[in-house]
Amino acid sequence: MIAMGGSIGTGLFVASGSAISQAGPGGALLAYVGIGIMVYFLMTSLGEMATYMPVSGSFATYATRFVDPAVGFALGWNYWFNWAITLAVDISTTAIIVRFWFPSWPSWAISVFFLLLIFAINIISVKSFGETEYWLAFIKVTTVIIFLAVGLLTIVGILGGRGPVGLKNFTYKGGPFIGGMPAILSVFVVAGFSFQGTELIGITAGESATPEKSIPKAIKQVFWRILLFYILAIFVIAALIPYTSPKLLGSSASDIATSPFTLVFQRIGLAGAASVMNAVILTSVISAANSGMYASTRMLWAMGKEGQAGRIFAKTSRRGVPLMALLLTTFVGAFTLLTSIMGPHVYTLLVAASGLTGFIAWLGIAISHYRFRKAFRFQGHELDELAYKAKWFPFGPILAMFLSIVVILGQDIPAVLHLNWEHLGISYMSIPLFLVLFIYYKVKYKTKVIPLGEVDLSPHKDDPDYVAKQARMKQQQK
């Protein structure tokens, strides 16, 4: 439920309408299916490594051990930066959403309240994080199921009072494909952002009592449900609302009234549809902030353990919470207050800053898995030793690498074609950030790509800290 809910957020509730308006119903469906296939292979790649070597902050550790320590260093700080800034964005967004009901309330007070709430949830224990995420995910999943049922009944004419709608909107005004490949590529970016968060399964592996069972189960069951939700939701929206509708152009959490979910509920006469969806989107944003806090603190904790961040970040509380990593991430989240002091342009910059970092993380996962499997076979290991085996190797990670690079480079094609340097700087700022981190570590420590025969494949199951942590978690669960 947590992994499923983690990938259902404003990308589905709001930005899905923008995707349909840009590329038409067919283009949007094609983009979401394509990214969904890529994410499936990423999930299987991550699952193979996470069941063999379950560690918190897995991406940085895997890249460090299987590729190059400089890649692991840059990837880890990149991912921490991604979620820490995303936390700031989400906390700012809570103020926008709450002011929908209470416009006179100060934004800074709302942001402080939710930041302290997220901090409290994460500082108590891993269990409190999990319980909170479960119920927030339950609300989101239930909303999507109700939406799909209402939408499908409206399409066939049982609800809505206007007779069957059918699929006429798919061919409306030149549909279903609009804008050609450039439009579809731009929607690939939107779809990719919508699916980001599925990789949290790898982050949580190190704190699962039985990762060899829970990780494969999560990958097999959850991903197909997520893909089903997204594809069916896009289908329902495209069938009921023409892609030319200006109300589909909203693409931020502040456009609650233009959420395609709101539009569909309003079509059947649901009173207060905007207010209901506002509440659901608020739970979605809180969930994203909660996940962001968890993921970023665990990544920073893992880098502290690996010596790629200050050792102070490797320390944990009696409940196993990485306290100093949590405090630093909360401090970054406090930058949300600048949106109240310096204006909404700070919010825009925060959104842009978190842009491509998720795709860079996906690229790192694919490369790490490719190197892991090659080293595994090179050193004489048999695939039967793996608790979970990724299917279609090496096609899966190669496809994921290719599509990740395409999406990263195609982030803002109009800015590239027109040489809009301001937009280029904002859209692609994550790339120079990653390169600076990589080059800094490479030059300082003179690292190299690890030869396949020297890749460290020893699982962490023999690590005393890991064994003690697993014993502590099992005791807490009793």
UniProtKB/TrEMBL annotation:
The record's InterPro entries line, in alphabetical order, gives: AA-permease/SLC12A_dom (IPR004841), Amino_acid_permease_CS (IPR004840), APC_YAT (IPR050524)
Tell me if Transport is a UniProt keyword of this record. Answer: yes
Give the Pfam families listed for this entry.
AA_permease (PF00324)
Q: Which residues form the Amino acid permease/ SLC12A domain?
A: 1-448
The question of whether Signal is a record keyword is answered with no
Q: What is this protein called?
A: Amino acid transporter
Q: Which domain of life is it from?
A: Bacteria
Which species is this UniProt entry from? Agrilactobacillus composti DSM 18527 = JCM 14202
Q: Which GO terms describe its cellular component?
A: membrane
Bilayer topology reads: Multi-pass membrane protein
Question: Where is this chain primarily localised?
Answer: membrane
Q: Which UniProt keywords apply?
A: Amino-acid transport, Membrane, Transmembrane, Transmembrane helix, Transport
Q: Which GO terms describe its molecular function?
A: amino acid transmembrane transporter activity
Query: Where exactly are the transmembrane stretches of this chain?
Result: 29-46, 80-102, 108-126, 138-160, 180-201, 222-244, 264-289, 321-341, 347-372, 392-411, 423-441
Q: Where in the cell is it found?
A: Membrane
